[in-house]
Amino acid sequence: MSVFEYLDYRLGLRAVLERRKKDTPGFTQTRLAEQSGIKNTYLTNVLKGRGNFNSDQIFALAKNLKLNRLETQFLFVLRELDQTLMPERRLLLQSELQALRQKAEKTEHRIATQVADD
Length: 118
Known about the structure:
This protein is an all-alpha fold. It has helices at 9-23, 29-36, 40-47, 55-64, 69-83, 87-117.
């Protein structure tokens, strides 16, 4: 799963977390919370939609989940979209998300092409 498939930053983070648990032996949500400086109960509550992360928490989680810069930026914009009450800003953020998705698709395509050429 890719964070670019989501419209809610919590769902994107949850999907990455679940994938990381499957792919990395010994990786746990508790360890992620500890490394990110977040209480595990708070992490659980936010991932279930009962709270919000601030930008620093998203940065720490993205770093510890080993997300790249584009994925991290996408999560920041998703969070801002979740928080805004201004319709005009909402449209601007949605455009920004679309641009980030397109950039990610181009990057993935370029990497796939390079691998195929090798």
